[in-house]
Write a structure and sequence with these properties.
Layout: H1 19-32, H2 37-51, H3 60-69, E1 73-76, E2 79-82, H4 84-104, E3 115-116, E4 120-127, H5 139-150, E5 163-168, E6 173-180, H6 193-210, E7 215-221, E8 225-228, H7 245-257, E9 263-270, E10 276-279, E11 282-285, H8 292-307, E12 312-316, H9 321-334, E13 337-340, H10 346-357
Parallel strand pairs: 6-7, 6-9, 9-12, 12-13
Antiparallel strand pairs: 1-2, 3-5, 4-5, 7-8, 10-11
Length: about 375
């Protein structure tokens, strides 16, 4: 008789003991504690009490000592802090988590859409033309063509049998990633900032390791907007801010103007509507509905980006219909794209779009 056998659910992502397993948990917790090592270790102690992932042979004290000896922790002014090595480990961990999912889904490459004598092979094939280089010839396909065209008895290979592999030109891309750090990113019982900064760290690590000639600038925006460096990402926190989307876009455009690449783009992660402007040193704020003045200036900036050939991809992590309507209008004016993303899928959406955008050459 067929049936089902039920057993107690045991989470398979809990560490099984040992330094490497505990390090993975530690780096994950650092994302939630904004890089506060002391708080992350305190959380680990509480989790250890509940799930018992250390043992008599290797305890939390051993793990902390190993973190110090291996250069992941340092003591400063009587306080335990993470090091640059830990910051890089967090970025690598985020990259493995997000890019691993993307690879399993089989999404996109990282090429331009211009074929010819390039650097990366693609699926396109054509007949040999005078001037094509020998390394472009697909010998297997060419021999196969010769056998079909002339038979197997007396092998003959002519110019008409030769088949050439097209190649793609690699492109350089300059990207500004804008992250909303207004107070609403932690309201309503939902942590939206942690997935946003984890995605930013993963994207930064991807560019540094796989596309080092690309550039990535990171802009955060609340009442004001300012650039942050990659090493600041683990410590990023939400503030008691409104949402000055105009200031974020203005700074992003200024940063991209300094880049000499043809391909320029803005990625914006936000959960809400623009509610703030800064005029003559004073803040103009209105959180009630869609303020005509704030929305108007923001849409004007979207139009300016279009004139400068800078597409904006908006990753909207809120479901309110009137906010989504604003994003649709914003996207239509800019000619960019919008994704209404869940927090769980945010990283994969951004990676897929980044890779896809590099195939285009913006002129």
């Amino acid at each position: 008789m067929k049936g089902y056998q039920f057993s107690k659910f045991l989470p398979n992502e809990l560490p099984k003991g040992g330094f490497d397993e505990l390090l993975k948990l530690f780096t994950q917790l650092l994302n939630y504690t904004a890089g506060d090592a002391g708080e992350a270790l305190a959380w680990m102690n509480e989790l250890d009490k509940q799930y018992k992932f250390t043992n008599n042979d290797y305890g939390m004290g051993d793990f902390i000592e190993d973190l110090k000896e291996k250069g992941y922790l340092k003591e400063e002014d009587g306080e335990v802090k993470i090091t640059a090595k830990t910051e890089q480990t967090i970025r690598k961990s985020a990259l493995e988590e997000i890019f691993g999912k993307l690879k399993k889904a089989g999404k996109g490459n990282h090429n331009s859409n211009i074929s010819g004598i390039g650097e990366e092979k693609n699926a396109d094939r054509r007949e040999f033309n005078f001037g094509d280089s020998l390394d472009q010839i697909d010998m297997t396909a060419s021999i196969h063509n010769a056998q079909i065209n002339h038979g197997l008895g007396n092998f003959t290979l002519t110019e008409r049998d030769l088949e050439v592999e097209e190649k793609d030109y690699k492109t350089l891309t300059s990207t500004v990633l804008m992250i909303d750090i207004s107070h609403s990113m932690i309201l309503y019982g939902e942590d939206r900032i942690t997935p946003a900064k984890k995605t930013a760290m993963a994207l930064a690590e991807l560019i540094k390791t796989r596309y080092p000639k690309d550039t990535l600038d990171i802009v955060v925006f609340g009442n004001d907007a300012w650039p942050i460096s990659i090493k600041d990402l683990p410590y990023l926190q939400v503030g008691p801010y409104h949402t000055n989307t105009f200031a974020g876009l203005e700074l992003a455009v200024d940063l991209l103007r300094r880049r000499k690449t043809h391909n320029k783009q803005i990625f914006m992660i936000t959960d809400g509507k623009p509610t703030c402007l800064k005029e003559n040193g004073r803040y103009y704020k209105n959180s009630v509905g869609l303020d005509r003045k704030v929305i108007g200036k923001t849409l004007n900036m979207a139009a300016q980006c279009k004139r400068l050939n800078i597409p904006i991809t908006t990753f909207m992590i809120a479901k309110d219909p009137y906010l989504q309507q604003f994003v649709r209008q914003f996207t239509q004016i800019n000619g960019g794209r919008a994704f209404y993303s869940s927090l769980n899928g945010l990283g994969e959406y951004i990676f897929e779009d980044y890779i896809k955008n590099r195939r285009r050459t913006v002129r």
